């Protein structure tokens, strides 16, 4: 799901209410909400503010859409070979999946399941463990620098999507795509093949 409009809108509103420089909230993308609040406003009641922001994001579905190519890509993957690792809580993740009519994966690692969120590798390491996969065999699809750092720190290859940040902010990724529709995965007895459209680099 592309929830960037909702996330940006609610964080900007929250920043204005608390007299926080709106540009600072750019730092929170890809991080757990509670860590984002702690990063830009440690003087506030971090837990209370994080819950407030999350509830607003759940209620704000304007502009939240399924990424082009997402349903097709997920349908092409065996259910035991993919999972979701999100900086949001399980409650927020489930509301987004429901809104997009997307399948709930067998493995879903949320902010509720980790001590250290992205850019720490813990979320991706837990995801790989639950999928019973070696980290070097995993491919991460991300849209934020914090997630790219987390994937690499976990020993995984990372494809970044230009849905939240421009390509210039995603250069640490192994490849950058304009959209998820540019990425296809083929799993056969010979192994896994990732095909990338010409619009990608890496």
Summarize the structure in words.
This protein is an alpha/beta fold and 202 residues long. It has 2 domains: 4-59, no CATH class; 70-196, Rossmann fold (3-Layer(aba) Sandwich), CATH 3.40.50.1000. It has 7 helices and 7 strands. The chain has helices spanning 4-17, 33-40, 46-59, 70-75, 90-100, 122-131, 145-153, and strands at residues 83-85, 107-109, 139-142, 157-161, 175-177, 183-188, 191-196. The strands form 3 sheets. The chain has a 3-stranded parallel β-sheet with strand order 3-4-5, with helices on one face. The chain has a two-stranded parallel ribbon with strand order 1-2. It has a two-stranded antiparallel ribbon with strand order 6-7. Helix 2 (33-40) crosses helix 3. It is globular. The two termini are 24 Å apart.
In DSSP terms (H or I, runs of 4 or more residues), the helix count works out at: 7
Classification by helices and strands: alpha/beta
- Can you tell me the overall shape? globular
Number of domains: 2
**N-end to C-end Cα span:** 24 Å
Outline the low-pLDDT stretches: none
Strand content: 5-15%
CATH evolutionary superfamily of the largest domain: HAD superfamily/HAD-like
Helix content: 25-40%
CATH architecture of the largest domain: 3-Layer(aba) Sandwich
CATH C-level label of the largest domain: Alpha Beta
Spatial sequence of strands, sheet with the most strands: 3-4-5
Give the strand tally.
7
Helix and strand pattern: HHHHEHEHEHEEEE
Largest sheet: 3 strands, parallel
């Amino acid at each position: 799901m592309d929830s960037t409009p909702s996330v940006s809108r609610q964080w900007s509103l929250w920043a204005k209410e608390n007299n926080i420089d709106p540009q600072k909230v750019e730092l929170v993308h890809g991080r757990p909400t509670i860590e984002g609040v702690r990063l830009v406003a440690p003087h506030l009641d971090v837990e209370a503010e994080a819950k407030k922001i999350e509830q607003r994001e759940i209620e704000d579905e304007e502009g939240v859409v399924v990424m082009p190519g997402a349903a097709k890509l997920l349908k092409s993957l065996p259910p035991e070979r993919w999972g979701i690792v999100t900086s949001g809580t399980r409650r927020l993740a489930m509301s987004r999946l429901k809104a997009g009519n997307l399948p709930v994966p067998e493995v879903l690692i949320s902010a509720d399941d980790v001590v250290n969120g992205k850019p720490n590798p813990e979320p991706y390491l837990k995801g790989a463990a639950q999928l019973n996969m070696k980290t070097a065999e995993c491919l991460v699809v991300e849209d934020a620098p914090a997630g790219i750092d987390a994937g690499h720190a976990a020993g995984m290859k990372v494809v970044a999507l230009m849905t939240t940040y421009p390509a210039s902010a995603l250069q640490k990724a192994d490849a950058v795509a304009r959209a998820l529709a540019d990425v296809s995965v083929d799993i056969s007895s010979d192994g896994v093949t990732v095909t990338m459209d010409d619009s990608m680099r890496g």
